[in-house]
User: Fold these one by one.
Assistant:
Number 1:
Amino acid sequence: MGIALSNLLSVARDAMAVNAKALDITGQNVANVNTAGYARRRAEIQARGTSRDSYGGVTIGSITRAADDLTQRRLLDVRGQETSARQRSDSLASVEAVFNDANGTGLAGGLVKLFDSFNSLASNPRDTTARNGVLSAAQSVVDDFTMATRTIDGARADIFAQAQGYTKQINEIGVGIAALSGSIQSSLAAGQDASDLLDKRDMLLRNLSEIVDVQTASNPDGTILVRAAGQSLVEGNSANTLSVTLDTPGALAFKISVAGSPAMGFSAQNMGGKLGGMRQARDEDMAETRKKLDALAADLATAVNGLHSAGFGTDGVAGRNLFTFTAANPAHTLAIDPALAGHPERVAAASSLASSAGGNDVARQIAGLQSTPSTASGTKTLIESYADLVGDLGLRRQKATGDAEVKGALADQIQALHQQTSGVSLDEEMVDLTRYQRAYEASSKLLKTFDELMRGLIQSL
Amino acid sequence: MRISDATRMDRLVSNTSRLEGKIATVSQRVSSGIALDVPSTDPVQASAYLRARGNLGRMKGYADAIRDGKGELELAEGSLTQAQDIIARGREIALQAANSTYSAVDRSQFAAELGQLRDQLLASANQEGPNGYLFGGSKMDAPPFSAAGIFQGNGDQRLLEVSPGFTIATNASGAQAFTAAGGQDVFSLFAQLQTAVTSNDVNAIATTGKLIADAHQQVGTARGEVGYTMQRIDLADSAQNMMQILWKQRQGEASEIDPAQVYSELSALQNTLTQSVSVARTQLQTLSVNRFG
């Protein structure tokens, strides 16, 4: 019986300690309810068996971290797709603003005015004001093209600078993940709780997945393999180095450098994340828009020059172009031929020397380009070609925005699913708080009962 | 199903911010009246808007050409009317002078008047418009008719496009109206008549008088052609006005808001936001009371 009373004391002591620890863990969960990346902890309370050598009672078998690796991996993947689409959409916004004709920007107004000015010239071929009107309208078109190319080229340059910044960030996160993996490996090997380290590594993975779409695989020793675009960024507790440069056509070129080996280039087609979205916006969407803008500028200059050079100015001279451009960069180099600048009499309106003083055939033909197919394909007018450019850019951004919304909603669902396992519910914690508090009080009562029993026993002696 | 507090709060925030974002977008459309805030709002309509704008620009070009062309044709018609009146007076003089009862003094006065009429006729034939001589073709460096009444212009037409693929000449042919190319050389006839009146050659006066009647009809024909061209311009003007209205309508459909639809959308979004905020408030109050109250 003496042994039994001694056991009761031990059981009460252990019960108080276990419930105090459980209260401590609950407090930890409550305190971290708003901590990003925190996975709730749970005290796994176990009964200790009674035997000859054990007095029974209770103990904490382990403290578990309610992590859901499956949804975590899925979340990383979908967040990467969402941020990719969102970044693509955001990057295209500045370029789209240049072609916003319904709100007063864009090239349509300038093109219409140019043809309108030739129309006025056709009606008033001897009027110097009408001739100056042509030069003024042509300069506006040149300015519109210059502004559009500057915006696109500037946006592409900004994205390259941002990509370099993000690459640096990826490398820093990679080093952080590798270091944490090393610490997790050591902690687990020593039988210590690595929950805090795992939380931190998961947060770094989430941050990384916003920059680049990552896939992870866990190793039994607690380290992980992190891959992006088919390349290993982190292997165990060592990180590889990512870099970005521009290739000869000017596209982003990514390279991965594994310690001790030369940097290797790789395809970044499925890179995902902000970096993937930037690459797609810069090297696919903007590059295509720029290409179409170049084609439009070349088509415009070629069509107008073809007619203009066959015409005569009021000075009786023919063979002059209205526009100049370089074949390598038509939209950006488009300019009024210096021979015409400030010389309205050199604007060609007449089709013959005899009619050079008042003829209007050439002006009328150039004005007619507004409704005549005059692109290289020979099937579209210049305005139609421009409408296609704007429509294509709009569709690209619309798709990116739509994808971002769909992937965002999906990511929110997976996040909720992940939180269902890992997140802290204050309702639940309040119940636990009460439960452990009551258990602690009961344990105290047990101790008090033991005390009363012992007192009664001592007094009876 | 466990609902974590983070999920609950995230949903409250994301629902309200998403609704506020939508309200901001729709409000912007309401205040600007433009549905196409950016091309990606509706790329197909953005493209349609640009096509409509291009066509509207072309229609404006036609309208300007019609206005300018009509102005020049009206001037030409006025000059030809004036020329016809002068020729009609010449014909009257021919009829009067053919009567042998007139004295030498009378014939001398007729001859002097014929000289003045010829000068007026020359002035009408050399009339200038905003783009140079009305009857000289494309030749602008000299009047179409010399002092001797010799045509020194050309037959070039100044064409303006007034509807797709349809051009009209905004000048009348001086050669057809006043020279033998149109049947009679009007200035030569006036010179012949003046000579015949001066010499009292009654037969020559009668013969020339008949030819001047032909010349009157010749100028009348030229004037009629100008009038016919103006009628065609008026038809083109009606057509382009109608097309301009249609393209304006198309442009508006592609870019402007449908007020009923947008106001209704805005109202629905505001109601949803009010309800969402109310639910959020209730949830927050309930949670606070239950846990900490």
Note: The radius of gyration of chain A is 37 Å.
Number 2:
Amino acid sequence: MVKIMNLLPLIVVYPLIMAIIFNYIYKSKVIRILALLMALSLIILPFLGSYGTYFFGAHGMESGLISGIAYIFNPAKQIIIFTLMLIGSLVLITGIGEKRVNGLFVSLLLMGLASVSAVVLADDLFNIYVFYEIVAIVQTGLVIASGTEKAYKSAFRYMIMGNMAGSLLLLGIAFLLSATGTLNISDMHNYLANNPATPTIYGGLLMLIIGLCYGSGLPPFHTVKADIYARAKPFVASMLQTYSKAILVAIMLVILKLFGGLSYFNTAHGALIALSIFGMVFGVVMALLQSDYKKLLSYHAISQVGYVAAGLAIGTPLGIVAGIFHAINNFIYKSALFLGAHIVSQKKSSNLAKLGGLLPIMPTVAFMILCAKLAISGVPPFNGFQSKLLLAEAAMNVNMPELAIIMILVSVGTFVSMMKAFYLIFLKPCSEEQIKEYKTTKVSKYSIFSLAVLTILCILLGIYPDIVINQITPYANEIGRIWTL
Amino acid sequence: MSYINREIAVSLSFMFFGAAILYSVYNINVVEGVNAIYTHSYIIPNFVTAVLFDWRGFDTLGECLILINSVLVTGMVFGRGLFNSEFLKEVYGNQKKLNIDEIEGFTPIIKVLAIPMSIILMILGVYVILGGHITPGGGFQGGSLIAASYILAIVSFGIRNCPINFNHKFLETLESFGALIFLILGLTGIAVSGYYLLNIHSLFGMNVFPSPTGLENAGIIPYLNTAVGLKVLAGLSTITTLLSSERVIVKNISD
Amino acid sequence: MILYYDINYDIILILYPIIEIAIILLILVMNMDLQLASFITAGILAIVGLYGVFFVDNVLKKIIALSALGNGVNLTLIAIGYKAGGIVPIKMPSMEFTMFATKAVYPLPQALVLTNIVIEASMLAIMLALSIVFYKKYKTLKASIILKED
């Protein structure tokens, strides 16, 4: 029998090799063509591997413990990575239309994609830590690439926080290593389930939660995170927020997998749900106060992180399905919104006070942005509606109607601020000179193409949510635990 | 008002974390677990290198990538490949001479001592890299020794008159080359058996690493060590050059 | 939360060496367990680092504090590998293998520390580069000026 080769590591390794090559030839003339080819080849990567556990260096089970680094691949992870790669390639395509695009930007983007996929795939805590730190550096680099003083400042703040949170995360991993004697997550869960809890394990859990908050932008790190989204170029910000949400899903699943079903996890459960509620509410309240379109979108990104975290933190199979599905929807419509902001700021600026009257100039773009806005506020028939419905249902199933009510209220807030922004950008009457000015500035075709792809996905997933949900359900049943309050 | 609130919140969270760290640390009770496997199976004499490159080789790959990434971002901070370099132009644009680059270094006593010291350090570094699988050391330690010798020369002579002069392009090539060797040696593992970063002992009946008895299992580890050594020495040296010279920034923002 | 300052708290850092001296005395006089002593030292080092990150109003000192935090974590990891009466995990040809395997200290934490040192160094490089640029711009290292939110 011919054994089919498992090419799973290529998901991580191929972008890394290309990133090094792009870094080396960063000024060359062929960057644009290579980047386009790269964008096309990224999409097939998630279909290379076969499902199951993959051991690096053939170091599998030895005397009852997994000795090396293991990856776990299943349909749920496949669809997360597919969405990630899709958005990566769309952002790359948008980047080709930029004036000063160079190899360094492409290289950073690819490294980020590879590392986030590694975090999603890995079944090993230390490996997650290493790639988590790469993602932190990549995000800093992508912010710095926009080159303004504010970008440098926010990158510096993000870096200091990142170093601190990273060190604390490693401290947590050290605690768990000392208490369980292994780094593999499945083995660690077996050990934790069969042995009494010690204070060291509590410390490890606390530090993991800090790492989670930093990686995803939950409070207390929401301001730094919103800042870097707002200071980066808008189309880069769509990539940054996708990274953060994928990290959130990955680390949250790790925490659930490690501690799910243990008696002492209940308090942490409550803390995670509280953090996600804070994230939702802070995000939307701050967003209502902003006068800059990019900042408004960044705070909404934080608020949406709260939704995803709430769904996952509930920890029932339905909650996990809803959380992952909402994360995937979020990748799509939030990226569409940031790409829309990119197009708008190419026309004039991102300051809401200076904009207005864009509707007659670009009606198609306006329609697509409206679709994304309706999707983020949870209006049927868009994808946001489906996942928010599932989230509310999951909250009701565990007897937490308060959580569902908060979700609906935050949705209303999102709708209000999104419609305000839509009015100020597209509908507000403006002067004749401004319309002339709009007509002279050109928008790149690449970004409109990416926006169109994302809009079609929004509608498609809104009508056929089962495409994604059926893929996620088996994994959610495996991790989730049924409970009610 | 908000400042005071912030102070209180930060102080409280600091106390909470401090207490949590001390409490957990005081109660650590080490379980042997997977360490038993690592100490009971013999691959090469240096067990730390065995863990680093064989059992957990993929982590080391991540470590390589993080250094490359850091060099890339440090270069970006100093104006390489930015979308917009107005801020750097505002800061560095209108100065007559480059202050840092003009520094002459230390007194003759230090200069006389620094050169033999750094040559010895370099030789020690090469030895540590090559012997990484049998003696204490390895690619990372040796690479940082060589970079340290370069830093010593730069600190004592100043960046302009430094007798040890690595070309920037050369260092960049070395770094990319080191990381690519690592990644591609891993890919050969897939080609041979389907496992990434597999430690291949022999190919076509020949030992991958020609070695005396007792070292048959070394396989690709010495090559990985060399790759990491090249990458670390190039990476740390590039960072030093970037941090200690303003000429790079002025060159970056002028084009 | 973040990085806030305004008051100069540096003076409290003097406590750190005093605590360290106390721990050394405990080891010498009371025969304290070496592993426990290193764990506590590591914890205190991490706390000092955390303290510096939160309260010290100087970017360079914040960066030094971050590396103290990182070193605290590294020391914790190293101390996990400790074995009373252990030997270096490098097998000499003359050693008998079973004896070596039972006596050698754990190699895994040492490998993790090596990886972490590189990660720390790379993050440090970026932060130093950023602080060089900001020093050039503002001619000061005060965190309350450089990191001010707008």
Note: Chain A has one domain: 10-479.
